[in-house]
Every structure is written in structure tokens, then in C-alpha cells.
Amino acid sequence: MTDKAFQDYYPEELSHCYGCGRNNAQGLQLKSYWDGEESRALFQPEDKHMAVPGFVYGGLIASLIDCHCTGTAAAAAYRAQGRAMDTKPPIRFVTASLHVDYLAPTPIEALLEIRGKIIEVTPKKVIIEASVMAGKTLCAKGKVVAVHLPESMLKKMKGE
Amino acid sequence: MTDKAFQDYYPEELSHCYGCGRNNAQGLQLKSYWDGEESRALFQPEDKHMAVPGFVYGGLIASLIDCHCTGTAAAAAYRAQGRAMDTKPPIRFVTASLHVDYLAPTPIEALLEIRGKIIEVTPKKVIIEASVMAGKTLCAKGKVVAVHLPESMLKKMKGE
Lengths: 160, 160
Hints:
Two copies of one chain form a homodimer.
Chain A: E1 32-35, E2 38-43, H1 58-80, E3 93-102, E4 112-121, E5 125-134, E6 137-148, H2 151-157
Antiparallel strand pairs in A: 1-2, 2-4, 3-6, 4-5, 5-6
């Protein structure tokens, strides 16, 4: 892992995401990194993230997969363009579709490892497969189709 | 809608879910109700739930669909058994798989309407299709396969 996460390269105004924005003090602040050809993030759930006592709620798993995969999509797109992540224009992906299979109850005390594997990179979209491990237990598998942040969102943000 | 939500019938010890537990003060406390043959919930996102300024992050949408559908699955299972929701034994579902298609950016200021449509009810699982509307805009569609809370989770909760 390197010191700077994928999400640390997001422009300031696009770094407020509840799941992974460094500028969202109340959010999860997920951070994703390259680990060879795959990407990797670690996340420690808090007690409040429970489904039932002792286990993580499904929405957190979905959120971690979602943000890890859009981050990985951005990193993969920079790489496909042969560009470093601190070069312009910035690349920021959002989720077109998310699929999660919950394979085993996720213990809330475990440090979770989220991994992403790049399946496809095209100019319009990136497809990522994800896994969520608690120790040696595969708790969830996911798949995300990520697309570039729509112009309509940027325009509304700028008040246009 | 009736006064008491599906989630209000969950047993005390199974009402801590971050997404929908009445006993989770820090959670979303989603509440779902019958609306004819479908189910319905309303949710007002907070500022912190943003993806980028002005829009809801995808993990919240996934969480709302998830909890609304597991609640609807329980309600549908009681109904299939011809039982009222305050009768025993309690029925509590968890998510086996979750799919979300994000169709339009979800404005953060909008009161969201989550609807569930029951596709299949068997003794082992319930399949629900969901939609998330912001006013007249269909922001997301979802599909959940819900299964009964595993015995292993109950045992661990009881310290067995």
C-alpha cells in the first residue's frame, strides 16, 4: 500500500461522500489502495453499524463495496489513460449498478478487508468485482458497474 | 398506512439494526408499512448522507432498499402464514442478495419514497422488488432476496 489513497486524489468539491469523502466528518472515510493488480481497503465497523447484536448490517457492506469500487474505477481509469492520479482533468466515478451477495454473517468486531478486482475498463464504464473478508471468512461478494460522474450533477453543484 | 410499522413488530433484541432498528438511536430508523399489496416507506436524507453536494450517496439508497425489503419480507411471511405480526414465533429476515440499479441522481433535499413489491414467497425466502422515488423521479430500482435470520446469528447473540 502507498500512503495516499484513491479517495485522497478526489477534488476537494467531490470529497464529501458519506462513504469515502475525507471532507465528511460524520462519514465512513473509506480509503482504498492498489495492492498489486487488485485494490484493497480496510474498515473497522463501529457498534452502531450492527444488524443484530454482534453482526454488521447489510447496508454498511453495500456502502463499503460501493465506495471501494468507484474509487477503484477511478484509479483504473487513470491507469488505462497512462496518467498519474494527481493529473488533470480529475476522474470521478459514480455507481450505475451494485450487486451484493451476503455469504456469511459479518462479525462487527472484525477489521474488514474489502478487495476489488477490475473486470472491464472502457471509456464509459468500469466493472469491478469485490469481496469483503473478516479474517479468513468471505462474508460478501459484490459487483459494481461504475460510470463517470454525470455532467448534470456537476452543473447542479455549480448552480448552473 | 397504519400507525405501527413492520419494524415496530421486531422483537426488542432484534431491533438494533442501523438501517431500521427502533433501538438504534444513531441509525436511520426506517419504517415500512403496507400500502395495498405493496409496501411503502418514507425517508428524509440528511446533509451528511451526500455523495457530492446536493445528491444522496449510493450506500444510503442501498441501505433503504435493504431494510425496507427485509421488513416487507417479514410482513409478507406473516401474511402467507395467515398470522398477525404480533403473534409468535417472531419472523425476522436478513438479506441474501441485494441488487440496485441507480437510474437518476437522487436529490438530497427530497423526501424519498421507497416501495416494495412482493415477487415470490416460499418457506425459505422472499423476493422483493423495490423502487426509490424522489417526487416523480424514479431514482433507483432494487431487488432483494431475503432469508430467515440464521440460527448461527441467534446462537451467537445468546452467547451459545
